Each structure stands twice: as C-alpha cells, then as structure tokens.
Amino acid sequence: MKVVFEYSREKDIWCLLNYGKTSSNSPTPTKIYEQLVTTYGDTPSVENASQFINDYLSSNGVLIDEYKDKYQLDWDSVADKYQKIAEDIFKVEIKDTINAYITVNSRHPYSIEGNLFFVKVPSESVRKTVMHELWHFYTWYKFGITWQEKIGAEKYNEIKEALTVLLNVECKGLLPDGVLDMGYSQHQELRSRILELWSEERDIEKLWQKLVH
Question: 196 phi and psi, to 5 degrees?
Fold first, then answer.
C-alpha cells in the first residue's frame, strides 16, 4: 500500500460544498464553510467556492505544492511501521495506491471504492488524519464487506469510528507528541469499552464479535 498526496481543485470544491455544512457524524458546519457562507450566502456555487479557496490559500500563504511534499515526507517516515501494525491487527493486506487529497475543509471524507480520502491544509497533524482514515480502510476490508449489511450502515459507522481509539494504543509511538485520536463525542462510551476489551485480549476478531452482539 502506498499513500500519495494530491491536489485537485475540483475535489477541494466538492469536499467543501458537500461536507462543509454537515456530515453523518457531525451536524454542525465547519469553520471554513461558515466563512464561505458569510462571504457568498447560504447557497454558494461552485464558482463561489473556487474563488473562496483561491482567496483562502493566498491570504494564509498556503502553497499547495510545498504542503504536498511536506505531507508526503512526513507520512513516508512512518508508513512502513504503520502498515506493519495495521496488518498485524487486522490480518488483511491493502495493496492499492490510495490518494490523499488536500482540502481547505476540516472534514475528511473517504471512499473505499475510489481509494481516496481527504486531508486538511494546514493540518495540526496530517499523520494522525492518515492513520485515522486508513484504519477505516482496514476495518472495511476485514469486517465491513460482510458486516455492514448484517448490522446496518448506522451501527457499522458507529463501530468503525470508535475503533480508531486503538490508534492511541497501537500507534502511540507513531503519533506526534501530545496528539491523540479523539473521535466524536457520541462515540466516547463505545471507545472506552473498546479500550477495556482490548486491554483484556488483543484480538480484533473477538473484539468485533463482542461489539456487534
């Protein structure tokens, strides 16, 4: 598996317009989307979003190519170690190249089918974002393919989001100092349960069975 950082204005606009206002895990708009609607009104167009992105990048001195290189170097420094940990836990291998698209938005939608996810620029820790999103890929290939239909999309989403709490245990040494995967407020109880079960037995299949039943 290789993660390649890319930038596409079309995808940046899509991410901002489709995931700026709301998402399945967070009903509130992102700060950047609030700035967009403050400037262009409640129904910004594609052209509005593109101009807004231009102005945002320029006013904040964000040079996309520099960030692409910076993010790539940072991720490549831990990629092999992360992959080894994830494969040891999930017992699955991802051989595809996955594209990490840079966006001004602070939400990071992903697509298993499209082999892509989004990362924010600038980011407090792009490494944490990549680990988090790839954890969803591993979860899908291990369990989601067969289990999402059995338990329903809502419950699957809850579990796969909560499972990222394991990054704070298994990938602690790869995260920057002081950086943790915090998760969403509505999943905190489940995240605590996962940590408790994981401390008793480090077996992802047994953990999954306990979470779905």
Answer: -65, -45
Report how far residue 48's alpha carbon sits from residue 39's, in angstroms, rounded to the nearest whole number.
9
Q: Is 97 left (phi over 0), alpha (psi -120 to 50) or beta?
A: beta
Sign, CA torsion 182/188/191/197 = positive
Task: Say whether pLDDT at 23 is over 90.
Answer: no
Order of strands across the sheet that contains 116-120: 2-6, 97-103, 116-120, 110-111
Picking from 100, 113, 129, 73, the residue whose alpha carbon sits closest to that of residue 8 is 100
Of 96, 176, 179, give the one whose Cα is nearest residue 138: 96
> How far is Cα 49 from Cα 42, in angstroms, rounded to an integer?
12
**Residue 174 pLDDT greater than 90, yes or no:** yes
Asked if omega into 44 is within 30° of 0 (cis), the reply is no
Residue range 90-131, pLDDT digits in tens: 999 999 999 999 999 999 999 999 999 999 999 889 999 999
The CB density around residue 2, as the number of other CB atoms within 10 Å, is 13
Could you give the angle at the alpha carbon of 110 between the alpha carbons of 51 and 210, nearest 5°?
Answer: 150
181-205 pLDDT, tens digit per residue, is: 999 999 999 999 999 999 999 999 9
Provide the pLDDT for residue 24: 79
Residue pointed to by tokens 């595809």: 96
* Residue pair 184/166 in contact by the 8 Å Cβ criterion: no
